[in-house]
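Q: Give me a backbone?
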Amino acid sequence: MLKDGVILDSGKLRDEIVSLCIETAMQDFYSKRLALQLRHYIRDGSYLCRLKTPSSPSSDHNKFLPNFQMDDGDIYDCKKIHSQPSKRNISISKRKKQTSDKLRDSRIAESGTESESCPPGSFPVLKATKAGPLNFSALQDFASSRARSFLKSKAMKTLAIDNPADHEYAKGTVSGTYGGGEGTFSVWGPNIEDRSEMSLSQVWVVHAAQHQIYMALEAGWMVNPSVFGDARTRFFIFTTNDSYNTWLYNDNTKSPEDRGSNNLEFVRGRHGMPFGKRLRCQTINGNPSEIEITIIRNDEEDWEVLVDETLIGYWPKSNYQVNSANEVSWGGEIVNRRTRGRHTSTQMGSGHFSTDDLGTVAYIRKMALYDLDTDLYYPPEEDIGIIMNNGNCYDATYWDLRQADDDDDFGHYITMGGPGYHRRNCP
């Protein structure tokens, strides 16, 4: 007879035990639902099959349903949507695009069925990778050093590196009044020299004034071994409303200083890419791999995040004291620790400079803006400024292919990246 916890030293009966667990669960009060609450673990060659049976249908103290593991080793929990402090019903799964993009079908970087692996009314949350549990404490230094670098990057186009842990950028930026921004990002797997460093490509939607950042909304892909324990390329979002003193990473990880006085939140929906999702990467002259990211203010003045046209959730307007952005940027960023007494060799983008061939360099195409009425438009070429901390290590170039054909699939785009350390040029 199967009891609440059964441990078998032999692995031969593994499949039979799993089947029995599921069969028993199906006969329980919760019927099909409880079948999804099967947990199984492997501990030192032993096999544990455990059923968790809530005491009653109304005992909803747990925010999470049991986890599941993907083929790549990532482990997810399923979090109940209504456990979030939601401000509105997030039922819209897709937003109608105002432009077509004929290149997208063969280039989409996301694959997998994490969302479908969770029962209705819940969404997947990454808890651990094959390398082990996530280490979100590493984000505190990331945020504090980024605050210094970001505010300095607004002051001038060429910056002196005066902090050995500074963030370095290569990006295109526009200034005005905006209701959002979007772009289609090529996805790469840059090499990271030191585990405490990272490399990313993203869109920034920002409201900054008088050397303060009142709103920063960020989304893109990142390689960050100190957080994920591996060098895989993963999807992320990030926000702050006080110059990175407090912040929210993805949908559930707050800065240590945030103890309730600054209640940043992100409300997830049922569908869309999980945070921390591994992305398929492009290789040099290989098949392109892309992710389309949109950040847009909706009619309720909440800030939605869409990935490949699917709404994954929103930052509530209550997070911020402002209701519009005055700057949008697209580009890359790395952390330079100088752990070997020189500039890091951590790559940005593909590791190639921005003027290399398109099959070898990272790009962000279809760069677009939204006005406060959610109408999409493309930034005038003369409005885009290129910001580079250290152009000998990483650079960016803006291109415009839209003069001849307004439906061009590359449109306004930026190429960016670089290899980092070079004995003469990037010491």
